[in-house]
Design a protein that fits this description.
- By secondary structure, this protein is an alpha/beta fold.
- 45% of the residues lie in helices and 14% in strands.
- The protein contains eight helices and seven strands.
- Strands 1-7-6-2-5-3-4 form a seven-stranded mixed sheet.
- Strand 3, helix 4 and strand 4 form a beta-alpha-beta unit.
- The protein is globular, with a radius of gyration of 18 Å.
Length: 257
């Protein structure tokens, strides 16, 4: 009986939070679409980024209130008011970018081009002037421009969600952008004990709740001269930091698929 009630509650907590996220994204899209054309670029960008932060904060609050997640994201708060940096987290789950965006009002995110056309995310992302990853050359150019204007750039060095333990092979975009922008790379170490929303996990498949999810600041790397050497150093650093991470258990067992 108790087990049945717990399972019912977990379904309620999971689907109510997903419903809330959908409502938040659609509501913001309704406002963001006209604002993109009405507001001056700088003002629209600031409004867009703060709007995304606020909306996702409401969602994260709901995750904590329903005890769907035990969240520890406060380490990111120390970056507020600081100089431009590239945030380079590992990427175990689909929710990673969303949660990081709740902690800073001036983050520009590099995201997949198809998401910029998504009805839930497209209008808000365009208003916030997020960067598409469609063209590598254009992505680097836009990212460098945003960093020179004082923004913080969020870019996952793995390029996609983690498939293998402890981390996928890294791509060189982070080092390339850091080199041309002349800004440091701040690593973020994400740990989670659940494969929920990892690569291959169906959106509506119920995980075991609550989920522990935490982010801590890792090493800050100076802008590199040699991109290839930097990428190799970053890869080695992450492999060392994540060897005993919470997700190592389910990545090694393949339970994320």
């Amino acid at each position: 009986m108790l087990r049945g009630c717990r399972i019912l509650y977990e379904y309620f907590a999971l689907y109510s939070s997903l419903t809330l996220l959908g409502i938040i994204c659609l509501t913001w899209s309704v406002f963001a679409l006209p604002l993109y054309f009405i507001l001056p670029r700088d003002l629209g960008t600031a409004v867009g980024r703060r709007g995304i932060m606020t909306g996702f904060r409401i969602y994260a609050w709901s995750l904590s209130c329903t005890r769907t997640y035990h969240l520890d994201l406060t380490a990111i708060d120390t970056l507020k008011g600081g100089p431009p940096v590239i945030l380079a987290p590992n990427h175990p789950c689909l929710i990673d970018a969303l949660l990081i965006l709740t902690r800073h009002p001036n983050i520009v995110c590099v995201m997949k081009a198809q998401l910029m056309r998504n009805v839930f995310l497209g209008s808000g992302s365009r208003l916030a002037r997020y960067v598409r990853n469609e063209s590598s050359r254009q992505m680097v150019k836009e990212s460098v421009g945003h960093l020179r204007q004082g923004a913080v750039l969020l870019l996952f060095p793995e390029g996609t969600r983690t498939r293998q333990e402890p981390i996928n092979e890294l791509v060189g975009s982070v080092g390339l952008i850091a080199k041309y922008a002349g800004v440091p790379v701040q690593t973020l170490i994400i740990e989670t004990d659940s494969p929920y929303l990892s690569k291959g996990w169906p959106l509506f498949r119920r995980p075991s709740l609550p989920i522990t999810y935490r982010v801590r600041l890792g090493k800050r790397f100076a802008p590199p001269e040699d991109v290839a050497a930097f990428t190799a150093e970053l890869d080695a650093y992450y492999r060392n930091e994540l060897v005993a991470a919470l997700q190592s258990r389910w990545l090694a067992s393949g339970t994320h698929a």
